[in-house]
Amino acid sequence: MGREIAPFTTDVEIDNFDEILSGASEVVAALEECSKDGSSPFSRLLNTKGDQISEWEHLPPKDCYDPETRSQYYYHVHKKEERIAGEHGHLHIFRGSDIPSIIPISEIGESSHKPKKRNLTHLFALALDSKGAPIAIFTTNHFVCGDNWLSSDDTAKLLEGFNIGVSEPDPLINLWVNGLVKLCKPWAKALLLRRDHEFNKRADPDSPFAIYKDRSFEIPTSSYFDFIQVMEFLNQ
Description:
Elements: H1 17-35, H2 41-46, E1 59-66, E2 71-76, E3 89-96, E4 120-128, E5 134-138, H3 142-145, H4 152-158, H5 171-202, E6 222-224, H6 227-234
């Protein structure tokens, strides 16, 4: 992705340790249930397309959205040269809200892949390897998703209500995604809270909204994520 990625650390603020444990349990439960037929949540997600995946194509094909919680996710793959080492593709995680965007309509630029018009805010993205294991977390600039842009604090608060309770495209895929979001939450929140600081460092006082269209600043914050180290950390 053409940027320096912060190393993984377990030195993060954890507000709800039980929720992290619950997330780990959901991930493991989804993996174990899928293994009974030789699949995995990740292989099932890839199979929602039914044939070879094209770059930028969303999986599942129409995204997965829960109208009750206004939570949404999709997976896609970038060009190989745009991926980090070991990355297959990444999940984009969203939630809708009634909080107005802090970017005026007149200042909204073009997006490469706008989310559906559900007043969605992009929370974070989770890079996965070829087996579906999480390897990095990152935030994105506004132009990437064309989302309902909120402050770091308000975006971080939306993490608390993310949950996919619908059955499509597959309950076990959704259980796995729910678990990953809970498991990654402290690290995602830390990146979100750093995000606005990075914008403020680079913003032009004479054109404060130009930074949100700056294609050289696609990924404001990112860090590696080590699933095995997290599980070891939780079992201490």
